[in-house]
Amino acid sequence: MAAEPQPSSLSYRTTGSTCLHPLSELLGIPLDQVNFVACQLAALFAAFWFRVYLRPGQTSSDVRHAVAAIFGIYFVIFCFGWYSVHLFVLVLLGYAIMVSASVSNIHRYSFFVAMGYLTICHISRIYIFHYGILTTDFSGPLMIVTQKITTLAFQVHDGLGRRAEDLSAEQHQLAIKVKPSFLEYLSYLLNFMSVIAGPCNNYKDYVAFIEGKHIHMKLLEVNWKQKGFHSLPEPSPTGAVIHKLCITLVSLLLFLTLTKTFPVTCLVDDWFIHKAGFPAQLCYLYVVMQASKPKYYFAWTLADAVNNAAGFGFSGVDENGNFCWDLLSNLNIWKIETATSFKMYLENWNIQTATWLKCVCYERVPWYPTVLTFILSALWHGVYPGYYFTFLTGILVTLAARAVRNNYRHYFLSSRPLKAAYDAGTWAVTQLAVSYTVAPFVMLAVEPTISLYKPLGVSCFGTVSDLHSQLCRLERTKALSSRNTETQLGMPMAAGRSRVRC
Q1: pTM of the full predicted structure?
Q2: Is 350 annotated in the active site?
Q3: Are residues 324 and 395 in the same domain?
Q4: Considering 350, 406, 407, 410, which one is annotated as catalytic?
Q5: Among 105, 276, 285, 486, which residue carries the largest CB count within 10 Å?
Q6: CB neighbours (10 Å) of residue 129?
Q7: What is the structure's pLDDT at 269?
């Protein structure tokens, strides 16, 4: 594995701005992290200003596009200095493909160029230059831009290169009929609201926001006259922003305390590997993985708040009549912490990336969609071996969890106590399974992953593999039995029953 730089000697050496170095020294936090938070806070204030003083009714769309892009470019250069060249090169390559490629191939060229450039940057930054003499990690914005370039290319392909009857309802809704101009392209990819920490969003939603149609489009889905309104209301994002900033503050405090108290290095110390019993190892693994979450909660919730402050992210009205600002939310913390299935956990973690994977891979590939989606996710995240340990293990866990749910859940739905017991059991198993699966993702390298899996991983991995194999055999037996019964009764086989879901 690439040698990690020592924070004490390299915290000052960054490609980004060094004007906040005294603050970095005072707080004892690496300068690149201080620059990141400073840019996000500046983006938050800029977002309020953007919503109040550059309102769509008073400012042209071109001005709003230009200001959003200029602020975004400045923040990128402030954080990453000359490393931001990689971002601009990828954007220009993406636009060259957008204007020159045929609509039948635009999605393929964009996907392979964007993912190829991102992968080359991952490899060179980690394994060739070994971080060089610098600590700045520019891969985050590059990953977000890769998502946007490919999302836009697939949606242009859907709108201009496919027949409407071949599209799903969602693809038809998001299909783009006119290629964006250069200014619109720059604004979509590099706007200050999402260029640093995301999230990825659909091009149509972003353009509707710039043009001032975003909120009204969502409100038109509700019949307001039945509710006594004679005109569309004007929902304010202020409440949602304050709520998300409170979550951000709590996450920051947890990161500064809990994460430092239970660092991931605890999983490879002598006590954990040689002295702790198996139940203690599982519990400690869960605690350490919980302690690693606040930094993600902080970054993603703050990014969501920035978009909302600018007036972007309105998703409509819930069943209680409340305005919702979660169109761009990247996680649902409550559903993550109470998840009773691996599927439920994944659906509420890094939501916009899951949406991107569904758009460019899961719905498009003709075979093995689950496996290929996990592999693409690992490749997009980077080239650390730990990512591949996590995502390949995640395939087995996902298939095993799906088989368990299909074969056993219905036995526990007959009464409330049984359902409560089932939910409690599946919650505990899900949280432990997730902790086991994502541990290599956090540790990154091969050596600590193997050290962890020697006492813990082999038995867990074997259990999951055996459970999946047994459930596959059970489903095959049930399918064969059903087939024989139907044959004896002279009944045609149902297409759905003859397919084994393993």
Answers
A1: 0.85
A2: yes
A3: no
A4: 350
A5: 285
A6: 12
A7: 80
